[in-house]
Amino acid sequence: MTTLDFSDRVVVITGAGRGIGRAHAELLASRGAAVVVGDLGATIDGSGVEEGDPAREVAEAITAAGGRAVPCNADITTEEGAHALVDIALSEFGQLDAVINNAGIVRTARFDEVPYEEYQRHLDVHYFGPLRLCRAAWPHLIKSPAGRVVNTISQAMLGNPDMSHYGGSKGALFGLTRNLAVEGLASGVLVNALAPGAGTRMAEASADSLSPEVMEYMRTQLRPEHVAPVAAYLVHPACTVTGEVFNVAGGIVNRLALVNTAGIHDPALTVDTVADRFDEIMAISADAIPQVVAPAEVPASS
Ligand SMILES: NC(=O)c1ccc[n+]([C@@H]2O[C@H](COP(=O)([O-])OP(=O)(O)OC[C@H]3O[C@@H](n4cnc5c(N)ncnc54)[C@H](O)[C@@H]3O)[C@@H](O)[C@H]2O)c1
Question: What integer is the mean pLDDT of 170-183?
Fold first, then answer.
């Protein structure tokens, strides 16, 4: 049985003061990693900051349990915030090996009722935040023997009621994940994503877009601790894939794969051909080609 060791890993985790991010931090620290517990203490819709200091609470709990952790209240939507998270990893632990972009916000509303500034806020937290942190961390991830990035996307990017602003921003992060994975090929920095499900405060805030049965299932069966093992694996040197997405909830782990269907090829294509052969275009047959960033193992970091 494999026992993965993280004692030589330094990991920055955003949104680690609550929910899923907290579970990531606690698991990694319990396995020996040094963690930067990043959390601004934001309100669920990202419109402000709540009382309390969840990052400090989590870091103190980890330290009390014998782990290595330092809190950071940086706002990931700012350039200074991104650099603060990286700087504290370097000053406290001397290196940076991995980043888990987990911080998130949500509010459910119809797409034509959401103000544009709220679309922007979702992009700032879910897309520009991870982008800024990756840019600040990248030179250090390249130096690491195994630089890793994990982004947190959502099934909502594939379509959920009343979540266009949230799902759209997660879709942008999915595209960023794939493109950074390509950027990382030359230096061995691997960039993957997970789409979690867990009964957190965010799940409660999304209740309007989910059925009562699903909400009850999330509250009782889907724990943040079920998500953390996949995030931890993806930041370990044992992980060799890049540009991949994993759905993770309640002990279920599967790969969200993109495929190009075999489709049709007709140089004399007409609209009538499209109509006549539409079923062939749609069919996911054994000839469907997975859309991967790296078909095999990628080189180790320099
Ligand atoms: N819970 C689910 O079922 C679910 C489903 C799909 C995706 N997700 C994603 O998983 C991640 C974690 O969600 P969660 O359910 O644990 O939510 P949560 O609300 O419990 O935790 C999110 C944390 O992010 C922090 N945060 C928000 N904006 C920030 C900012 N600008 N700077 C720093 N920290 C900030 C908050 O303070 C909060 O502690 C999010 O990215 C979310 O979109 C969750």
Answer: 98
